[in-house]
Amino acid sequence: MDVIWPVLPDFLVGARNTIFYCLAAFPLALILGLLLALMDDSRFIWLRNPARIFIEVVRGTPIVAQIFIVYYGLGALLASLHPSWALWINNWTAGIGTLALNYAAYEAEIYRAGFQSVEKGQEEAALSLGLTPSQNFFRIQLPQAIPLMIPPFVNDFIYLLKDSAVISVIAGTELTSVLNFFVRKNASNPMPFFLLAIVLYLLMSLPVSYVAKRLERRLRAAL
Amino acid sequence: MNLESEQVPINGNVSPQDLAPVEGDIIIRTENLNKYFGDKHVLKDIHFEVRRREVVALIGPSGSGKSTLIRCLNALEKADSGDIYIHGERLNPNLSVKQLSPIRRELGMVFQNFHLFPHMTVLQNVIEAPLLVRKLSKEQAVALGESLLAKVGLLEKRDVYPSRLSGGQKQRVAIARALAMQPRALLFDEPTSALDPELVGEVLKVMKDLAYEGSTMVVVTHEMQFARDVSDRVVFMSDGSIVEEGDPDELFRHPKEKRTQHFLERVLSVLP
Ligand SMILES: Nc1ncnc2c1ncn2[C@@H]1O[C@H](COP(=O)(O)OP(=O)(O)OP(=O)(O)O)[C@@H](O)[C@H]1O
Ligand SMILES: [Mg+2]
Predict the structure, then answer these.
(1) Which residue, A82, A176, A183, B229, is the most exposed by fewest CB within 10 angstroms?
(2) Which Pfam families does its entry note (chain A) (predicted)?
């Protein structure tokens, strides 16, 4: 225990930063994901194709590679365009940006599945009453799709809590980065640090998954 | 509620004089209408006309194209060639969904499977389109919705969600919802086919009342008794064509075409 107490404040800051990263990245992923889902569903091939390609590339490549590309690749690109622009890329922006882009691809699929499970007849009824496409979307489709999408969204948020550990490869400030720092410093006895990090991750994810389970049961009962 | 009482122009900014002349008040008219699904020719040169206050029963064997025809009328299906006129205005198949909206609201559609909005109460189902499309005030819409629900005998269900209704009640709400847009005509696609037999009567009763009030209606139906008693004209379709049409008594008693005779023999033999 006496190895734990001195480092606990640093680990708690790491855990708090993990939550910050996720709370910033997830809403962005939800918005981008909706955009991607709408593009993917568009009549226009010049909207459909980029969305499809983005989704497939993100889902088909490791997130570690993605964060390197954003941090180093995008950083270098911006620096070559204008030296001061390189400052935009730090481990906060690269971390949040990568997580948001990565998760957007997965959330897009959840939106798609949600909208697909709304009966086709709903749209026909709406259109035959003279509703416009946007009225149909916001008043008929979205309210029916959202309850179906909430459980998988919450689930993905738990994955995000864990996936945010990828930020440690660019030496961020979240929990796994903190863990890395102390493991390196105490290479002879790293075990207590690993255990501490695991407990903190569980303390973050268990409440969310408890809420997810309850929500899912409530929504299922309502159907 | 009188369907004719509050006619709205087809397009908000078009005055009646701008519309093509409407001979004899023809609400729906198709000319040389053709529709393919892949290389299957589903509608073949359909000439179809519905006059104001007319009740037309559309009958025919399964797969003859009855649903496709009425779905083309409000552009739920896109016809491949030919013309459709709704109250004199040509339905341009290349309009965007948004541009179609003012034409679609001219025809109310009642589906076999109701397609009520499950996330809205009965009253909300009925007033949603009047609020969004007709831009009625909340009070006007609620008053309209309540009077229509009373008309179909479901006022006491106004705050209930559709999942709590029987099939017959759902279909009556769906009829009220279509009426709330005060369309020029109502299209019914087998409105009683999804219902338990004991619930068919309550829906047919509502439709009968509408017919007697002078509503313009096109009814795709397998209810031959209803077609015979209520409609002004029966149209028999087979294999994508209108084979025969006319006065219900005449057509049921003395069908001229072989295909009509066969069809009627088959369906009337199962009637009581
Ligand atoms: N979306 C579709 N895609 C392909 N073929 C279709 C589609 N809808 C209908 N068809 C075909 O078009 C033909 C006409 O169908 P339609 O539904 O209009 O017939 P119907 O007279 O309404 O029959 P029923 O009495 O069974 O409802 C049928 O052969 C049907 O298989
Ligand atoms: Mg049909």
Answers:
(1) A82
(2) BPD_transp_1 (PF00528)
Q: What's the pTM value of the predicted model, to 2 decimals?
A: 0.82
Q: Which residues on A lie below 8 Å from B109 (Cβ)?
A: 124-125, 128
Chain B residue nearest residue A119, CA to CA: B115
Ligand nearest to the CA of B240: 1
Q: CB distance A129–B105 less than 8 Å?
A: yes
DSSP string, A55-98: HHHHHHS-HHHHHHIIIIIIHHHHHHH-GGGGGG-SHHHHHHHH
The mean pLDDT values, 10 residues at a time, for chain A of 223 residues are 85 94 96 94 92 95 94 90 87 94 96 92 96 94 89 92 92 89 88 93 92 80 62
Determine, for residues B76 and A128 on separate chains, whether the beta-carbon distance falls below 8 Å.
Answer: yes
Give 3-state DSSP helix, strand, coil % of chain B, rounded to 5: 40, 25, 40
Q: Which CATH number fits domain A7-221: 1.10.230.10, 3.30.390.50, 2.30.110.10, 1.10.3720.10?
A: 1.10.3720.10
Q: Do A127 and B119 touch (CB under 8 A)?
A: no
Q: pLDDT digits over B82-120, tens only?
A: 999 999 889 987 888 888 988 999 999 999 999 999 999
Residues framing ligand 1 (Cβ under 6 A): B 37, 42, 60, 62-68
**B26-269: CATH homologous superfamily?**
P-loop containing nucleotide triphosphate hydrolases (3.40.50.300)
B37 CA from centroid of ligand 1 (Å): 9
Are B19 and B87 within 8 A, CB to CB?
yes
Q: Whose CA is nearest to atom 22 of ligand 1?
A: B67
ipTM of the complex: 0.87
CA A55 vs CA A41, A65, A71, B206: distances in Å: 13, 15, 20, 51
pLDDT at B21 over 80: no
Q: Flag the least confident range among A74-88, B115-129, B198-212.
A: A74-88
Ligand nearest to the CA of B71: 1
- Percentage of chain B beyond pLDDT 90 is 82
CA of B261 to the centre of ligand 2 (A): 21
